[in-house]
């Protein structure tokens, strides 16, 4: 994305919220900048999902964490664009907002996995108890 920005040169985007960029003619007017924004978006999205994939289990906690990141990232992007602050460039701010919106996909995934694993644990008996009980008490031969 940095190489694309250096090729396309500096531009001054003026949007009031990150999603206004999708509905404006700016996407077709600045195609390299658009490509840079979407490549950053995909990179940030994959980074967060990769980091969460290293944590085994805790599906509901992952879903809650993703929801918090989603809300805070969107609020950050809206505030940055509305006030004109320059903590991050407009391109990075838009990318952060889009990546956090894409995080709704793993949020739903982890929520469903958490719900199904909870239901599965309550319905089926624990496997370790079943096997240990079967080996300790062989069935009686009633012939």
Oligomer: single chain
SSE order: HHHHHHHH
Count of helix runs:
8
- What proportion strand? under 5%
Task: Characterise this structure.
With 143 residues, this protein is mainly alpha-helical. It has one domain. It is 74% helix and 0% strand. The chain contains eight helices and no strands. α1 packs antiparallel against α4, α4 packs across α6 and α5 runs antiparallel to α6. The longest helix has 25 residues. The relative contact order is 0.13. The model has no long low-confidence stretch (mean pLDDT 82).
Describe the protein's topology:
Layout (H helix, E strand, L loop, with lengths): L1 H7 L11 H4 L2 H4 L1 H23 L5 H25 L6 H13 L1 H20 L3 H10 L7
What keywords describe this structure?
143 residues; mainly alpha; single chain
Short description:
With about 140 residues, this protein is an all-alpha fold. Helix content is about 75%, strand content about 0%. The protein has helices at about 1-10, 20-25, 25-30, 30-55, 60-85, 90-100, 105-125, 125-135.
């Amino acid at each position: 994305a940095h190489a694309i920005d250096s090729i396309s040169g500096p531009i001054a985007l003026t949007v009031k919220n990150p999603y206004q960029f999708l509905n404006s003619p700016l996407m077709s007017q600045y195609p390299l900048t658009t490509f840079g924004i979407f490549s950053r978006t995909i990179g940030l999205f994959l980074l967060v999902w990769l980091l969460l994939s290293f944590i085994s289990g805790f599906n509901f906690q992952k879903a809650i964490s993703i929801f918090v990141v989603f809300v805070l990232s969107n609020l950050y992007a809206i505030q940055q664009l509305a006030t004109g602050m320059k903590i991050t460039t407009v391109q990075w701010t838009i990318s952060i907002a889009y990546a956090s919106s894409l995080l709704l996909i793993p949020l739903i995934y982890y929520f469903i996995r958490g719900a199904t694993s909870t239901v599965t644990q309550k319905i089926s008996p624990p496997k370790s108890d079943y096997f240990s009980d079967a080996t300790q008490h062989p069935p009686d031969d009633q012939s």
